[in-house]
Each structure stands twice: as C-alpha cells, then as structure tokens.
Amino acid sequence: MADAKTLARIHRVRTLQLGLTRADEARAHDKLASESALSTRISSLAAAVAPVPQTAVAVSLGASAHYRERLQQSADAAVERVRSAQYQVARATDATRAAQRDQSAVEKLIARAQADAVIRELRALEEAPAFRNIRHDPC
C-alpha cells in the first residue's frame, strides 16, 4: 500500500480533477440552457413571421416566405446545437461521476491507511514491556 505522502498527493490531484470536471459540467449545463433559450427565441420569431389572413402584396408574401425559410434553417441548426449540448452535458456528467468515484476511492485508501496505522500503534503498545522504570530524583 502507498505511504501517506503519496496518498495525500494523489488525493490533491483527484480533488483538482474533480473540480475541473464539475466546472466542465457547469459550463455544459450553461451552454445547454443558452442553446435552448436561442431555440425558443427562434421559434417565437418564426411564429411572428408566419402568414396572417389579410390582404398582402406579393412582395410582402415573398419577403415573409424568405424570412420563414431562413428562420426554419436557423431553427434546424438550433435543434442540432441543443442536441449536441445535451450530449455534452451527458458526457460531462459521466466524467464528473467518474472523477467522484476516483476521489472517493483515494479517500477510502487514506482512511484504510490511517486505520492500519492506528492498529499498528496499538499492537506496538501491546508488545511494549509491562514494567516501567521508576526514576527517583534526588530528594
């Protein structure tokens, strides 16, 4: 089993890795939220440009058709970005879980090493001589 110094170093590294993966997960969640908001805004714009039953000139209908087509392309791209962001969130969550498992494994090793050290000290005390030296100081 590794010594306490090595375990402490490994624990520091795993703690840093866990912090970094948690930060990556938070960024992935933020990106997913922003992409979802963008998709919602694009769909509301598409609804605003939708044709309404009124008398309109052909140029206006052509322009709104053009904008609807562009908004549909943007909506399709936004849906793909949301899907990609969801995938990144899933990957980041898995990475965070793996880093947490690694850190908890190191913490268990540290706890086991400490328990072994305590047991060794108790055994050393049991094996110590039963008598004690009484020293008399000059009176």
- Compressed to H and E, one letter per element, the order equals HH
Report the mean per-residue pLDDT as an integer.
86
Low-confidence stretches: none
Q: What Rg is obtained from the alpha carbons, in whole angstroms?
A: 33 Å
Secondary-structure-derived class: mainly alpha
The number of strands is 0
Number of helices: 2
Shape descriptor reads rod-shaped
Percentage of residues in helical conformation = over 70%
Please indicate the percent range of residues in DSSP E strands (runs of 2 or more).
under 5%
CA-to-CA gap between the ends?
Answer: 52 Å
How many strands, which pairing sense, and closed or not: the largest β-sheet?
none
Keywords:
139 residues; mainly alpha; 2 helices
Describe the fold and architecture.
With 139 residues, the chain is an all-alpha fold. It has two helices and no strands. The radius of gyration is 33 Å and the shape is rod-shaped.
Compact summary:
The chain is mainly alpha-helical and 139 residues long.
Task: Chart the SSEs and their pairings.
Layout: H1 4-49, H2 58-127
